[in-house]
Amino acid sequence: MSFVSLLYCVSLLGIPVSPAAAAVPGISGRGTDESDLSTCERALSLGFGDLERYQSALPSYLRLFSAVDAQSRWHTAAVECPQRFAEGTVRSALADDAARALADRTGITSVVSSSSASVDDDLTLHVDATTAAALSLAEDRAGFAFEILASRHNADATLYHLSDQRKSNAQVLATVVKQESDPRQKIYAVDSLIANPDETTDPTNGLKAPTAAIVEMNCALEQLDAVSATNGTNATESNAASASSSSSSDSTTTRTDTEIHDLSVISSLIAAHITTAIDLGYPAMETALLH
Q1: Residue 66 and residue 53 in contact, taking contact as beta carbons nearer than 8 Å
Q2: SS3 of 56, please?
Q3: Span 126-182, pLDDT tens digits
Q4: Euclidean distance between the first and final Cα of the chain, in Å?
Q5: In this structure, are residues 90 and 246 in contact, taking their beta carbons and an 8 Å threshold?
Q6: Which of 24, 54, 51 is nearest to 37 (CA)?
Q7: Model confidence over 233-259: pLDDT tens digits?
Q8: In this model, does residue 16 exceed pLDDT 50?
Q9: I need a surface site. Which of 99, 102, 131, 156 has the fewest CB within 10 A?
Q10: E-assigned strands of the chain?
Q11: pLDDT score at 252
């Protein structure tokens, strides 16, 4: 059920709804009439509206439905807006995290559906070899790190599971696109992991968090870099100054079905890594991931 549908049901029950809950910011001065918006523009417009609502002081159940809608809207923005892949993916993951927290609080768990951090063995992708290699390398590096951390935590079953899952992802991504050589290195630097198996500082932003959480988040950010390089944007560039507007490239470029499929798969995978990192203890801070 979309947030608009929920508001209609609430109105039938005679429950008052604040004006902020119903407002959806327009784009480029177009107000709230979205009939002439592109798919990208509509996703951004509704996404920012949902974001505002689920972070507001509305009742938890209303915020839950806004967070669920926001997850979907921002995933669409990541896929449909050429300059918004990283921003859409990150905001989609943060909305998913918020939705799961609100679902636990309200007991309304059936409306939440999170992305999977695993890729299918029969995955098909049509990205360039460089991007596929970078995605595979990030997965393999994380898998290796989790294996080291598992051994440092008395053979922790959860960390071993994450290691196996990431290595399996790396295998699929290394072969889904023809490569001149296997992009995986198999062995990576371990000094920092051995010295700080419990908590460390994320070199990307200076935040302290559990080491396992930083390993997972760095995997996600490395993959965002790989895809964003292809799109000609910085991985975590949010362009906050234009939060309620879209660039000309956002609104005029149309994705092919193949591009939509590939970006949807990759965005879902990276978003799952971000939410897993948050579950492992990484701060769910928008400012830490978008700048």
Answers
A1: yes
A2: coil
A3: 999 999 999 999 999 999 999 999 999 999 999 999 999 999 999 999 999 999 899
A4: 32
A5: no
A6: 24
A7: 544 444 443 444 444 445 456 778 998
A8: no
A9: 156
A10: 199-201, 208-210
A11: 52
Tokens of 105: 């609080």
pLDDT exceeding 70 applies to what percent of the chain?
A: 80
| Structure token pair of residue 247 | 């660039």
So what's the pLDDT on residue 153?
Answer: 96
- Determine the length of the chain: 291
Question: What is the spatial distance between Cα 56 and Cα 19, in angstroms, rounded to a whole number?
Answer: 12
- CA–CA separation, 101 and 81 (whole Å): 28
> What string of DSSP letters covers 178-234?
--SS----S----HHHHH-SSEEE-TTT--EEEHHHHHHHHHHHHHHHHHHHHHTS-
* C-alpha to C-alpha distance for 77 and 71, rounded to whole angstroms: 10
Q: What Rg do the C-alpha atoms of the chain give, in angstroms?
A: 20
